[in-house]
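Exam prep: given the inputs below (a chain plus adenosine-5'-diphosphate), describe the expected output before reading on.
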Amino acid sequence: MSADTLLPLLKSTFGFDAFRGRQAEVVGRVMAGERTLAVMPTGAGKSLTYQLPAVALDGCVVVVSPLIALMHDQLRGARAAGIRAASLTSVDADWADTRQAYRDGGLDLLYIAPERATGEGFRSLMAARRPALFAIDEAHCVSEWGHDFRPDYRLLRPLLDAFPDVPRLALTATADKHTREDILVQLGIPAEGLILAGFDRPNIRYRVGPRVSPARQLTDFIIANPGPGIVYCPTRDGTERMAEKLAAATGRRVAAYHAGLDPERRAQVQHDFVASEDGIVTATVAFGMGIDKPDVRFVAHAGLPKSIESYYQETGRAGRDGDPAEALMLWGAEDFARARMRLGELPDARIAGERARLNALAALVETVECRRALLLRHFGEVPPERCGNCDNCLDPPRQVDATVLAQKLLSAVYRTGQSYGAGHVEAVLTGRSDERIASRGHDKLSVFGIVEGEEARLIKPLVRTLVAREALETTEHGGLMFGPAGRAVMKGETPVLMAEPPVKRTQRASRGDRAEANPVGDPLFDALRAMRRELAAEAQVPPYVIFHDAVLRAMANERPATRSELGTIPGVGARKLEAWGDAFLDVIRQH
Ligand code: ADP
Ligand code: ZN
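Solution:
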């Protein structure tokens, strides 16, 4: 059965006119009773590939999902679309009712945690009524190669095999080749069942830059981005300090989130963030996992992420609704220095792998070419050279040949005894004599004052570059010393090209040039948002569950006058039209 026959149902249930990306193929396989592994980026619309069959098929779709918060979020969304959905988790009090409803055929969609799905009780429930589909969300958890192995996932296989004719659908956003192959084996899915969608998230604009004064840089960034956002900070302390500074500087509501807070506070911060249209959270990387907030408008990193994979996953929390979103990363040489220092503490077997991860990050932060192309190549794709939506494409940096300057810099490090910091080395190179330099005789060295004028401006950025490339390392006390790649650079054997640091670029009008910015300040749009807030509070759901921003924008533009006109706007399904249509039509009439 082709997925196209489900188009009317897609429209009436979800309000969408067409499948997106490879959804149609996945849905087609599910409807044909086949086994499938769908690897699709965050925001691609994975949940629709089992929620639509849940409505179309007789019987209930069972979804195994590892995070309660995620399940409940999905549950709200599904119910708002009129799907009969329930969950069996440790925090649900209505187990008996849910089980009964399942037995009576009163459910379309049932969410369950892996540790519960593997028990006898659940097996007999499944035996009482054959499910229509087993969907296994976050399927990379089944693989030890994945970054998030969960032993419970390994125990799912006997349940699946007890119902061999029930189709299986495994879903994940992050799985490299190794992990994908493992998932197929572990869950008994044939190789031809793999559907691999592109990794690109074209609506996310990537920016990467040196961290000069993080609070100020982030303040500017936030002021240009009025929507909800996440700022990742490397430490718990850092999240709290940054929250205070950003709140004071921007006047926005900013909450800190980290594992050291008590669980109630964490739940509160998360809840408020999900419900808000402009909240900001400063967080350690734990935050965001299992949060399915589609309208996150920006993700900023105040320090270097752990790997390209983590960076991609964390930035992927922005813009799931497809609207423009921004990702900003600020990095410093000390991030690389610290990470390289930690390499020494690892077991030998892991060092090479971790070093490769760091080198890949170094390439990302340093490139003068398209950031997106580099990211996509990392995931095995063959992207176009330029994306037009990253800092380097929008505002191409000039590349300078710093090979000779790097030789001078390294010889200054060498001659001063490999123990002074970047400031001292810079002073020596530029011939700035002070007491410290004179007392150590550094003004007598051949490298004293050999860098002049314009070139001096490049010294600090060059230190960053050389640390990222392992030509320099930092000592315990913050001094610079040679790294493994240092000697070849000093001898001039390795050319050093680097991006020319910006000469104070004029601030790009970050909102004005957006394709589809929200018309905040437009009275109709604002009134529609106010109505959405009111209805959301009444229904006790976050505003985006009612309608996404894009839907409100379309309402403001098209000004539908009747229910049927309103129903043609993408995202307005039959159920939502009936529940909330009139309220919005009233608002439009009054403006
Ligand atoms: P994922 O689980 O893959 O991260 P979601 O299932 O949360 O993504 O979907 C992301 C967003 O895309 C949701 O807001 C959803 O409503 C929207 N979406 C899904 N399918 C379609 C479609 N065919 N057309 C338009 N929007 C869609
Ligand atoms: Zn680009």
